[in-house]
Design brief:
The chain has 2 domains: 5-88, Immunoglobulin-like (Sandwich), CATH 2.60.40; 166-447, no CATH class. The chain has 17 helices and 8 strands. By secondary structure, the protein is α+β, with helices and mostly antiparallel strands. The strands form 2 sheets. Strands 1, 2, 6, 7 and 8 form a 5-stranded antiparallel β-sheet that branches. A 3-stranded antiparallel β-sheet has the order 3-4-5. It has helices at residues 91-95, 117-126, 130-141, 196-210, 213-221, 224-231, 235-238, 247-254, 265-288, 297-304, 306-309, 333-349, 356-371, 374-389, 395-411, 415-427, 439-460; strands at residues 5-10, 14-20, 30-34, 37-42, 45-50, 55-56, 62-66, 71-78. A hairpin with a 3-residue loop joins strand 1 (5-10) and strand 2.
Length: 461
């Protein structure tokens, strides 16, 4: 079945769905309405739209087909007239599967048991192992055994498969990476076998190897072009008009995977953090190319995202420091700084232009993007997806990360949470000492050399 192009509009009393299905017989159309769900089938097209609120099929409802334009328009009445249907332009959200309420599932309750407490105690004793019996006897006789704290051991791995990507849903995408020209892959042929700790170690080693003091100092001294890049303003972020998706963007959203994501609170929190690293990388490329991607743009983006190059997404702090009960929106400055520090490091070690001021400008760009809300974030992710999809090797990162992010942002992300992160990012300070490359002393030495050279020139005159 083919998912047709479609768009939705609304009035105070109804919602209309315009479906492009040329060269069909209107008499064969099948339309079903079930609360929030609309399904339209007209061979070879099939469309299932899940509205945010219920609709009904009544006397005011209609379905008309215009053979000249090829559009079938289905008009349905809102169950609560005057109710606003939000996000009708977020097509991926409308196409997402309808959420099933877990509370509707049957719940089994144990009413009682014929076992007495004595019988239960006998059963528990019979089930004890010899070691458990000895421990129980030792407790009764107050024996003094030496006690030591067991060393923490890595979790038992029951499978050789390693999972990565969005919510760790993917595996096998790098099975033949040794036979491709994937220059951003920092795990080599071990991409499918590395544990997360090993990926992080390899990423840090790669960053240290790529760090070049002379390159950084050269860009710091001769920064005329970098200053031009810093002065550039993104017209999309300066525009106060509402974001309206283009026909091309709508078509891309129609081709996104149809998935329903059920992340835990901690996973959802980590998705917001990973989103920061994706937007940072795209903001860097967008600023350095001034919104005109080059053949190197795909490499630049993938090199700056640790989740791409090393399959190492945030958080970059220990999970013990993030209590499971913390609300998703409870991000601290430490959370955000630890997330963006690797992005800063990579922007100073990999691409052509290496400037701490440039990294700071990209952080502010990310804050401005998030402050614009889900639609602008979706547009930037779609643009990133377009760049990666047109690369013969790096398209894989679009499949395991960007596609799912485009769907999740539209269907599940919260504008209030993103606005809170944006405000924190705007005021956030990431110091040069956090980068761990002694940047402050390098810049001080550069100033000293420049001053000494100027003094020598004046003396010679």
């Amino acid at each position: 079945m083919i998912t047709p192009r479609f768009s939705c509009t609304q009035t105070l009393e109804s919602v209309a769905v315009s479906i492009y299905c040329p060269s069909v017989r209107a008499s064969d159309v099948e339309i079903n309405v079930d609360e929030t769900l609309l399904t339209v089938h007209i061979n070879p097209y099939f469309l299932r739209v899940n509205f945010p609120h219920p609709v009904v099929e009544d006397d005011q409802s209609s379905a008309t087909y215009d053979p000249s334009s090829g559009y079938l328009t289905v008009t349905l009445t809102k169950e609560s007239k005057g109710q606003e249907f939000p996000d009708l332009d977020l097509l991926a959200k409308l196409l997402a599967p309808r959420h099933v309420d877990d509370q509707k599932h049957p719940v089994i309750e144990v009413i009682g048991s014929e076992h007495t407490e004595l019988e239960e105690l006998v059963d528990l004793t019979d089930a004890m192992s010899l070691e458990q019996r000895e421990i129980l006897q030792a407790a009764e006789n107050d024996w003094q055994f030496p006690q030591t704290v067991a060393e923490s051991s890595p979790p038992i791995q029951l499978s050789k498969k390693r999972y990565y990507g969005f919510l760790d849903m993917y595996t096998g995408y790098f099975a033949h990476v040794a036979h491709t020209e994937n220059d951003v892959n920092e795990l080599g042929s071990e991409a499918e076998s590395c544990l997360l700790e090993e990926r992080r170690t390899k990423r840090l080693q790669r960053e240290e190897m790529k760090w070049d003091e002379e390159h950084y100092m050269a860009d710091y001294v001769d920064d005329e072009y970098i200053q031009e890049l810093l002065a550039w303003e993104d017209p999309e972020l300066a525009d106060s008009a509402q974001c309206i998706f283009t026909e091309s963007e709508n078509m891309t959203m129609l081709n996104l995977p149809r998935k329903e994501y059920l992340p835990t609170k901690l996973q959802q929190r980590n998705l917001y953090l990973t989103l920061l690293t994706l937007l940072f990388a795209y903001a860097y490329d967008r600023r350095t190319t001034q919104r005109d991607p080059t053949p190197e743009s795909a490499w630049t983006i993938c090199s700056l995202v640790p989740a791409f190059s090393a399959l190492d997404p945030p958080p970059y702090i220990t999970s013990e420091s993030v209590p499971l009960s913390i609300p998703t929106s409870g991000f601290t400055d430490h959370d955000l700084a630890s997330t963006l520090t690797p992005s800063y490091r990579r922007s100073l070690a990999f691409p052509l232009y290496r400037s701490f001021a440039m990294a700071d400008a990209c952080r502010k760009d990310v804050a401005a993007i998030l402050a614009k809300g889900r639609r602008v974030v979706t547009r930037y992710l779609l643009e990133m997806k377009h760049i990666l999809d047109h690369h013969e090797v790096y398209y894989v990162y679009s499949k395991i990360w960007v596609d799912d992010f485009c769907v999740w942002i539209q269907a599940s992300a919260n504008d209030e949470i993103m606005l809170d992160i944006a405000e924190r990012l705007k005021a956030l300070t990431i110091t040069k000492s956090m980068i761990s490359w002694d940047i402050e002393n390098l810049e001080a030495a550069t100033h000293l050399d420049t001053t000494t050279s100027d003094s020598d020139d004046e003396s010679s005159e």
